[in-house]
Specification:
This protein has 14 helices and 13 strands. It has about 325 residues and is an alpha/beta fold. The longest helix has 17 residues, at about 245-260. It has two domains: about 5-190, P-loop containing nucleotide triphosphate hydrolases (Rossmann fold); about 215-305, Helicase, Ruva Protein, domain 3, CATH 1.10.8. Belongs to the MoxR family.
Length: about 325
């Protein structure tokens, strides 16, 4: 647990750029240290791309940005074999996926075929091109952004793609005081330019390994499985959370405990990350959605009505 101060420095660094969103920043770091990928979904202009750039600058990791457009090809992401005229042999030219932190900007603006080129990298930390497999460097995380309200020229992410994201995170609008503070910080300069590295790539990998050692009691494991089961039992939910979601919820809970400086998971850790881990993996019945029910409301209700350690939290 010796990296708590390093984590705090990363959060403080990003807070210089993204004002008043400490909880959101923590969720992104939780996802990173758990070895997952994050989908940052919100309206334009709230700082999605800025958040990812600030995280990358705070860490000694390679960073690449892929601007997703309708004409983007899978080879533009993974790379392509090119003939070397001097040797007469093909050489593989790596694409931008060969990095530690990959910003998939406006991921829903490209075709499902191109989106699917990320699946292997996100799940197995490797890419396969022309039957040759290349391992990606650790740490590796895809941080994708998308606009949830713009439909023209966009392609909804398929369920298989969504399930590869450990968390779906929303930044939200700043308060009046936070927006005034933002104006003052950005009035004469861009704070992003002054951000310095506060943690190395090797330290990030070490933290990821330590997260795996965070203790999870058997009763907490049962609580996690019980929550997931409820998403499959509710009549309002057409498709419940997958077994991969169960594993991601466990890992995110371990990471949350680690970020807070503990070496064991509590039910509060599970509850804190539950909505972000599960909300994009379930499908609410259309007739229920029409009545105003959302994934978030249903999951919050499941949290409220699910017992922890055999004791009802709410009556």
């Amino acid at each position: 647990m010796g990296y708590r101060e390093k984590i705090k420095k990363i959060i403080d660094n990003i807070n210089e750029v993204i004002v008043g969103k400490t909880e959101v920043i923590e969720k992104v770091i939780i996802c990173l240290l758990a070895g997952g990928n994050a989908l940052i979904e919100d309206v334009p202009g709230v700082g999605k791309t800025m958040l990812v750039k600030a995280l990358a600058k705070s860490m000694g990791c390679d960073f690449s940005r892929i601007q997703f457009t309708p004409d983007l090809l899978p080879s533009d992401i993974t790379g392509v074999n090119i003939l070397n005229p001097k040797t007469g042999e093909f050489q593989f030219k790596f694409g931008p996926i060969m990095s530690n932190i990959v910003l998939a900007d406006e991921i829903n603006r490209t075709s499902p075929k191109t989106q699917s080129s990320l699946l292997e990298a996100m799940e197995e930390k490797q890419i396969t091109v022309d039957n040759v497999t290349y391992k990606l460097d650790e740490p590796f995380i895809v941080l994708a952004t998308q606009n949830p309200i713009e439909y023209e020229g966009t392609f909804p992410l398929p369920e298989a793609q969504l399930d590869r994201f450990m968390m779906r995170i929303s930044i939200g609008y700043p308060s009046e005081e936070e927006e005034i503070m933002m104006l003052r910080r950005f009035k004469n300069k861009n704070p992003l330019e002054s951000i310095r590295e506060v943690v190395t790539k090797e330290e990030v990998v070490k933290m990821q390994e330590e997260v795996k050692e965070v203790f999870v009691d058997e009763k907490v494991e049962k609580y996690i499985v019980s929550l997931i089961a409820k998403t499959r039992e509710r009549e309002e939910i057409l498709i419940g959370a997958s077994p991969r979601a169960t594993l991601h919820l466990l890992k995110a809970s371990q990471s949350r405990a680690y970020v807070l400086g503990r070496d064991f998971v509590t039910p509060d850790d599970v509850k804190d990350v539950f909505v972000e881990v599960i909300s994009h993996r379930i499908a609410v019945r259309p007739e229920v959605k029409i009545k105003g029910q959302t994934e978030t409301k249903l999951l919050s209700d499941i949290l409220e009505k699910t017992a922890v350690l055999g004791v009802k939290l709410y009556v």
